[in-house]
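job 3f2a | input accepted
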Amino acid sequence: MNTVHKKYHTLRGILDDLQSAVIAFSGGVDSTFLLRVAKDMLTENIIAVTFRSEIIPQTEIEEAQSLASEFGVKHIIINSAILHHKPFIANDKQRCYYCKKFLFSELSDIAKKNNLKHIIEGSNADDAHDYRPGSKVLKEMNILSPLAMAGLTKEEIRKLSRKMGLPTWNKPALACLATRIPYGIPISKDKIKRIAECEQLLHELGFKQARVRDHETIARIEIPQSDISRLVKEKISSAVTTAFKKQGFKYICADIEGYRTGSMNEVLNNEK
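job 3f2a | predicted structure (272 res):
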């Protein structure tokens, strides 16, 4: 048995020991894999919960609904008022902490109402290497991360997902739209809306992995470096420029370092 399959069987054992759980389910690579394995181990003793808010594209909510239905898992969608939560919209470097605390409190209520013993979420073993203040909430609220506990990395989860036939095995990495706004700049519905619409345009143009970082008058586009040459071709660049300026951006640029997760945290690293 290779290392990946050992970790997979470790994961199954962890989930089996839980007996029942509520899972924070986004429909991304990690939480979909976790939900599928949890369904195998916990059968009817699991509820998936997805939060609906402006910071999550509606397409992601719809995909989560479809996946939960396919797996035969009870699925609850909660309308979140996170954009009315003042500590979150202030957007300091603890933003993720405030968000997790706000949202996971609702998961705790669902677990209690349904007599489910645990709350689980989809952080993996790689996540410990990034700046994630929200991880403090997991410890404070005794929320478990079975994928990380089993030592499974993102690449391993993708490989196992592909073997299991999960449609999310090669899905681009997800992050809430608030992560596109630099720390210190307040989050607003208008900013979130224009980011969502600009990213949707890039997806429609065939850029599967894309981030639009909102620096007020400047839109900084992150796509894989291999895609930048296509982005700057006259027909595509003209369409992007026109659409982005309609959203209020004055300057539109491509980040030549390319797409990378957590790029807004680089400024924090520079402060150390």
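job 3f2a | The chain has a mean pLDDT of 93.
job 3f2a | closed
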